User: Which sequence fits this backbone?
């Protein structure tokens, strides 16, 4: 009998397929525990392969683990596969070997970042992968101003803010603060993350966790079917709005010219969280 708290990939994928989406944003760690190409082809593809033509992926930390020994040792993730399984499966859309890119969807500009680069390399070191990604992001934001693209959505694997056990309230990856500062200054509307195995929605905030009506709304959608982690224990972070750790599911975003709506659906068919006609920054 299937454990209802584990291995529900097919149910999530079937729900997404039924939605007739324009895009499916895969938020990293598509294949656990290690992102080997043979595992992507055998397991991930069997559930989510039917969405491949509309998938826009970003890599997660597990996409750089190349065997169980390395995963257990938490060795430097770029010492092994260099994400070869992830990039081999998703191909050119993932922009190998960098893993970051952008595209437009109507009046929205979408930016895919490789957060592993920010966490594993020095963002201030000229020529490092983190520095190069930052320079690319600056140029990309400058060439897609708000007056031309009222909505900006950015997605990457690791969240700056999360509230889960055994995590603590507040920053989980302070290396991402400079990235948030750039996005905040540019008027980005939404940040989507994975990594935490639950669903979380945070109020609009600045890069330091302060509520700001014109700030960035962060969603964590780590409910793709592998397993779920408990949300944290009180005190609740000030900008945390709502979350759940009991149901697999997916976030549906409806992007309009200068606003957006969202619904988080569980695989049982229930809308557990929603918001409608939210104005862009």
Assistant:
């Amino acid at each position: 009998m299937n454990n209802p708290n584990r291995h529900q990939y097919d149910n999530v994928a079937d729900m997404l397929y039924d939605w007739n989406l324009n895009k499916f944003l895969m938020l990293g760690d598509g294949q656990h525990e290690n992102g080997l190409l043979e595992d992507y082809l055998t397991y991930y593809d069997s559930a989510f392969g039917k969405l491949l033509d509309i998938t826009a992926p970003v890599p997660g930390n597990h996409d750089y683990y190349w065997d169980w020994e390395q995963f257990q040792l938490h060795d430097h993730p770029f010492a092994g596969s260099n994400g070869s399984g992830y990039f081999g499966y998703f191909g050119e859309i993932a922009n190998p070997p960098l893993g970051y890119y952008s595209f437009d969807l109507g009046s929205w500009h979408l930016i895919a970042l490789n957060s592993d680069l920010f966490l594993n390399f020095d963002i201030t070191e000229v020529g490092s992968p983190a520095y190069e990604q930052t320079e690319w992001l600056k140029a990309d934001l400058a060439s897609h101003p708000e007056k031309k693209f009222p909505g900006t959505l950015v997605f990457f694997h690791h969240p700056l803010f999360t509230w889960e056990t055994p995590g603590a309230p507040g920053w989980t990856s302070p290396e991402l603060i400079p990235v948030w500062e750039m996005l905040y200054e540019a008027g980005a509307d939404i940040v989507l993350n994975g990594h935490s195995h639950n669903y979380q929605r945070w109020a609009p905030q600045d890069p330091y966790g302060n509520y700001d009506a014109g700030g960035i709304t962060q969603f964590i959608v780590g409910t793709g079917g592998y397993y779920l982690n408990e949300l944290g224990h009180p005190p609740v972070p000030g900008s945390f709005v709502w979350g759940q750790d009991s149901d697999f599911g997916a976030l549906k975003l409806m992007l309009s010219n200068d606003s957006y709506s969202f619904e988080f659906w569980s695989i049982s068919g229930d809308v557990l969280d929603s918001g409608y006609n939210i104005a862009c920054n």
